[in-house]
Specification:
The chain is α/β, with parallel strands linked by helices. The chain has a single domain, classed as 3-Layer(aba) Sandwich (Rossmann fold). About 35% of the residues lie in helices and about 10% in strands. The protein has 6 helices and 7 strands; from the N terminus they run αβαβαβαββββαα. It has a 4-stranded parallel β-sheet with strand order 2-1-3-4, sandwiched between helices. A two-stranded antiparallel sheet has the order 6-7. The longest helix is centred in the C-terminal third of the chain and has 26 residues. The radius of gyration is 19 Å and the shape is globular.
């Protein structure tokens, strides 16, 4: 019996490894986006992460392993130049054959302008060196930026390297910390599932099932967090910089 169990386990392991080996090569720029892509690819494949959790995305420097991941990728998800300005050139030089999805540029993404005034310094968003790492806001409320709207056409390709349409979005005007919106997170889950399905139709059912499950989980988490924050709602907080308005 133990011999039979060992044989079955070995076959299962080999089958699973083969499935992962055949899955699309996918890259995400920051941890919140990576967590969403990982959730949609659960049981099918594993995406690569460029910017480690403990590192600021604004002025990150690519490692050789990052360059290799981008060069081999068939699909790349990134927030956009408002958050990782250095990545656009890397994508142009390394990921010319990949489908590139810029989440902040999607029409479905809800963006907010930078806040200015007495309480908010009009800080220069072309210089992000002093910003702390925003990946930590991935309560996996995936309060990264998950956002899911079923009926949108997610296949608009941008310029000659497959970038998604930037329609009407001036990145300098908008706060890039949009993953802190649960609505965005849910929208992006469906976008991710649609893009993965377009390059890997065999696993389309799995991608959309995972996205649907993640949306249910986000709704439950959103409710839980709202209840936790009821006692401090309306209070004033001191933060390093204004990065939390989507939350």
């Amino acid at each position: 019996m133990s011999r039979l169990f060992s044989t079955v386990s070995a076959i299962t392991l080999l089958t699973g490894s083969a499935a992962l080996a055949d899955s699309p090569r996918v890259v995400a720029d920051i941890a919140p986006v990576h967590s969403l892509v990982s959730r949609v690819m659960d049981g099918i494949g594993k995406p690569d992460l460029i910017v480690p959790n403990e590192t600021s995305p604004h002025d990150y420097r690519l490692r050789p392993a990052d360059a290799e991941a981008l060069e081999n990728a068939g699909l790349v998800f990134w927030m956009g130049e408002g958050l990782t300005p250095w990545m656009e050139r890397a994508l142009e030089s390394l990921s010319g054959e990949a489908t590139i999805v810029e989440l902040l540029a999607l029409d479905e993404t809800k963006t907010l302008p930078f806040r200015e005034g007495a309480l908010f310094d009009a800080h220069d968003h072309s210089e992000h060196d002093d910003h702390d790492d925003h990946d930590d806001h991935d309560h996996d409320k995936e309060h990264d930026d998950h956002d899911d709207h079923d009926d949108h056409d997610h296949d608009k390709e941008h310029d000659d390297h497959g970038h998604d349409d930037h329609a009407g979005h001036d990145h300098g005007e908008f706060d890039p910390h949009a993953w802190l919106s649960t609505d965005n997170a849910k929208t992006w889950l469906n976008v991710i599932a649609a893009k993965l399905s377009s390059i890997d139709p065999t696993n389309a059912g799995g991608y959309f099932a995972n996205a649907s499950e993640a949306i249910v989980e986000l709704d439950a988490l959103d409710k839980e967090v709202d209840e936790m924050l009821d006692t401090v709602r309306g209070g004033k907080f001191i933060v390093f910089h204004d990065a939390y308005q989507y939350f």
